[in-house]
Amino acid sequence: MTDVQGWRRKFGVLGPSTNTIVQPDFDAMRPFGVTNHYSRIFTPNANAVSNESFRAGAEVIAGNVLDAVRSVMTCSPDYLVMGMSAVTFFDGEKGANRFTREVEEVSGVKISIGSDACTAAMNTYGGVKRIAILSPYWPAMNTEVARYFGDKGFTVVRDKCLQCRSWIGIAEQTTDTLRLALRELDGDDVDAIVQVGTNLSMVKLAAAAEMWLGKPIIAINTATYWHALRTNGIQDRMDGFGRLLAEF
Predict the structure, then answer these.
(1) What does the DSSP 8-state code read for residue 7?
(2) How many separate helices (H) and strands (E) can be counted in the chain?
(3) One domain for residues 109 and 127
(4) CA contacts within 13 A on the Cβ side of 225
(5) Mind listing the pLDDT tens digit for each residue in 10-36?
(6) pLDDT at residue 59 tops 80
(7) Residues 211 and 163 in one domain
(8) What pLDDT was estimated at residue 48?
(9) End-to-end CA distance of the chain, in Å?
(10) Which of 74, 78, 154, 166 lies at 20 to 30 Å from 173 by C-alpha?
């Protein structure tokens, strides 16, 4: 017996309760026969996030992840998809591996996380060695992102932090702001631009930017959902979300 709507796969999606972008993004990329079941990680909205407080605030969210895992497992999903990126970059590659291991031990199913999904995306594009990073974070967190990608063999040439002051403020960043940030980060010395922070609305803009910048622009929500689909043997190609979903 299989679920009548999720007959191909049921995905349990984990995301902060303040995040308003992941759920519509993942639903927009959902092929027929796959269903997304969102489990909200309890996240008090912080209204004065700073360089000093960002990691501590993100670790509060990380501490509530396993409760959200246990909750979503009551619908018996086949697979989990992580809709928060910061906690998947903490402490570099070893931290990402530890996070994955802990979630999979509790859930009994596999998970796609943003850090590893972006790595898989860049390796799939091929020829990506030097990257720029765009985030809604603060410098202390971008250091963690750069550490992870360094562990994976990439060189971070430059990065930009939008320094959002609240968790919900991340979702309020405009297309104009993000477009200017991409132009600032671009250059002949980078092979790709990677956007992290799942509450930034970037999947459509990243797809468009690939055409006018002529290189991979990887939105973390696109990479994570793509990774979940392909890991589960779902090869549907989809236009409108960049080369990753359209070609690979």
Answers:
(1) S
(2) 10, 8
(3) no
(4) 28
(5) 999 999 999 999 999 999 999 999 999
(6) no
(7) yes
(8) 58
(9) 31
(10) 154
Q: Which residues pair with 214 in a beta bridge?
A: none
In single-letter form, the type of residue at position 185 comes to: L
Q: At 71, list the tokens.
A: 């909750």
Q: Are 113 and 13 in contact (CB under 8 A)?
A: no
Q: What pairing do the DSSP bridges indicate for beta strands 111-112 and 130-135?
A: unpaired
Query: Where does residue 76 fall: left (phi above 0), alpha (psi -120 to 50 degrees), or beta otherwise?
Result: left
Contact 71, 13 (CB under 8 A): no
CA dihedral angle for residue 217, residue 220, residue 226, residue 232, rounded to 10 degrees = 150
Q: Which residues constitute the domain of residue 24?
A: 9-115+222-237
Residue 244 tokens read as 């990753």
Q: What is the pLDDT of residue 58?
A: 74
Place of tokens 């799942």: 198
The DSSP 8-state label assigned to residue 75 in this structure reads G
User: What is the percent of the chain where pLDDT is above 70?
Assistant: 100
Mean pLDDT of the chain, nearest integer = 95
CATH number of the domain encompassing residue 226: 3.40.50.12500
E strand or H helix at 206: helix 203-213
For 15, the token pair is 């995301």
How many percent of the chain have pLDDT more than 90? 88
In this structure, the answer to whether residues 188 and 110 fall within a common structural domain is: no
Same domain, 106 and 172: no
Q: Tokens representing 125? A: 């594009």
* Residue range 137-179, pLDDT digits in tens: 999 899 999 999 999 999 999 999 999 989 999 999 999 999 9
Tokens of 3: 């679920």
For the cut 90, the answer to whether the pLDDT of residue 62 exceeds it is no
